[in-house]
Amino acid sequence: MPRSQEDISKNMSKIHSKDTSIEILLRKALWHKGYRYRKNYKVLPGSPDIVLTKYKIAIFCDSDFFHGKDWEILKLRLEKGKNPDYWIKKIERNRSRDWENDKKLLYLGYTVIHFWGSDINKHLDECLTTIDEAVWDCKFSDFDIDE
Predict the structure, then answer these.
(1) pLDDT tens per residue across span 67-94
(2) Which terminus of the chain has a lower count of CB atoms within 10 Å, N or C?
(3) Euclidean distance between CA atoms 132 and 126, whole angstroms
């Protein structure tokens, strides 16, 4: 059933760029594990959702829709929907901006991790394992075997 413009507008007004449910879920799990972090850290390119400053790890919690999960499939769906030019352009711009910010963060020496919202919701333990492994790598990247 088609939704009215009023319903669409009401739904879109509830979408926020920070403190989303997926961010909060991941942050609570990290806090419970003893990780301390900065949230929406504006000092870094792209204002990562979560930054483990001690380990130089930047974490992004990406919405499946707005960041284009399974982009080729989503793009085909959008082409058949309402206002395809707007949505395709918007999501491609988001994906491009994400890629540019990742390059800048890598240049600054950060490890960059992106999680899809659906993965955080369905596979939180795997997301935490990925972060644990990145921390482990950071802890021992400076370790010199000859010492």
Answers:
(1) 899 898 899 899 998 889 999 999 999 9
(2) N
(3) 10
Distances (CA, A) of 91 to 4, 111, 112, 144: 22, 24, 20, 43
Bridge partners for 59 per DSSP:
50, 113
Edge to edge, the sheet with strand 38-39 lists 38-39, 50-52, 57-62, 111-116
Number of H helices, E strands in the chain: 6, 4
Other Cβ atoms within 10 Å of 133 Cβ, number: 12
β partners of residue 57: 52, 111
Give this prediction's pTM: 0.84
Helix residue ranges per DSSP H, 81-122: 84-107, 117-122
Measured on CA atoms in the order 32, 38, 39, 45, is the torsion positive or negative? negative
Span 5-53, pLDDT tens digits? 676 566 656 565 677 899 999 999 999 999 999 999 999 999 999 999 9
Amino acid present at 101: N
**Hunting for tokens 């669409």 — which residue is that?**
8
Query: Rounded CA gap, 49 and 21, in Å?
Result: 12
